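Tip: read the tokens left to right.
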């Protein structure tokens, strides 16, 4: 028993899936839709660490089909295994917390209580928080002039398809305060990004800040200029995988379905391509995919856009998160003192 049927049987516990047709059908329906109870980006984020947990359990001769019967004390030992790995890598406690959250999420989707609530699991998490000290990750903000530099260099008349898609993606992420996962999702569904005379409308059916799955719409104005976020050549694909052919670059996959969706460019590939492009135009900052979300919000703050407007545009729930994503350059930071009337 594999796939949906296995998950349905897990949801039913000791009740056989075929014992009652109506109950069986309901269990299959729940098993096939359970993943929608969490943001798609969350489910995707936990895919790899969940497989790492399954691989570790297999070393103990615990099959994937039996994973939901694993004792919580054994899960605590897995978290201790992660702790020791993190300790050797000299990074912070995030991996331990992430491994715990991964297991909790998958047990939740299987309708089972999470073994990570056991005191032994709490002990490992607390141990990690108190003793694992990693280097603080500081994401630099991308500046408007950086977007213009990249567009001028990589989006000219003879630009390649991969470069055009990257520049368009960077501009849209900057202007829409978007995460990589947001853009990766809309980039493979044409009806989620539509162009109008004055603006583009981006629909996020589900995102990290929309746990209830109500959907959010972002509008980005058509501003003109080399760094205008409107995709070059119209509403074309962004972040698609591309192959080189004798006729030039072409999309690896042109059509998809619900069962076989078109894959986006991976986060790692996007990050590496972004770093190479920044290096090529002389951008010295440590620009990461999240730098566009930080940079767009920071640029708006420096130009007097209210915190409330930025909070709505960035889909943040609290003022504290808006402030966390705001980096003021020296000139903008000094503007307050210059307007005190002391001169």
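Filled-in amino acids:
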């Amino acid at each position: 028993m594999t796939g949906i049927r296995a998950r349905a049987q897990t949801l039913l516990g000791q009740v056989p899936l075929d014992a009652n047709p109506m109950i069986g059908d309901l269990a299959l329906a729940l098993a096939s839709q359970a993943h929608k109870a969490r943001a798609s980006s969350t489910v995707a984020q936990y895919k790899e660490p969940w497989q790492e947990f399954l691989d570790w359990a297999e070393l103990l001769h615990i099959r994937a089909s039996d994973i939901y019967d694993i004792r919580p004390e054994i899960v605590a030992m897995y978290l201790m295994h992660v702790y020791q790995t993190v300790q050797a890598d000299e990074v912070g406690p995030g991996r331990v917390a992430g491994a715990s959250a991964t297991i909790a999420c998958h047990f939740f989707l299987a309708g089972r209580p999470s073994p990570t609530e056991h005191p032994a699991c709490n002990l490992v998490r607390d141990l990690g928080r108190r003793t694992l000290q990693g280097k603080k990750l500081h994401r630099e903000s991308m500046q408007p002039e950086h977007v213009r530099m990249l567009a001028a260099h990589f989006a000219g008349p003879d630009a390649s398809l991969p470069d055009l898609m990257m520049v368009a993606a960077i501009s849209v992420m900057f202007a829409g305060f978007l995460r990589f996962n947001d853009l990766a999702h809309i980039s493979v569904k044409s009806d989620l990004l539509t162009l109008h005379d004055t603006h583009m409308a981006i629909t996020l059916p589900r995102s990290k800040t929309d746990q209830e799955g109500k959907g959010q719409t972002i509008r980005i104005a058509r501003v003109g200029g080399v760094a205008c976020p409107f995709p070059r050549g119209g509403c074309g694909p962004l972040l698609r995988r591309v192959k080189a052919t004798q006729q030039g670059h072409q999309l690896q996959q042109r059509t998809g379905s619900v069962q076989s969706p078109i894959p986006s460019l991976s986060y790692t590939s996007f990050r590496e391509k972004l770093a190479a492009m920044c290096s090529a135009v002389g951008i010295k900052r440590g620009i990461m995919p999240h730098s566009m979300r930080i940079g767009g919000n920071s640029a708006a703050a420096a130009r007097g856009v209210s915190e409330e407007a930025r909070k709505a545009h960035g889909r943040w729930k609290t003022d504290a998160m808006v402030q966390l994503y705001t980096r003021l350059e020296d000139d903008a930071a000094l503007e307050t003192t210059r307007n005190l009337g002391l001169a």
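The chain has a mean pLDDT of 82. The beta strands are 193-195, 199-204, 216-221, 242-245, 248-251.
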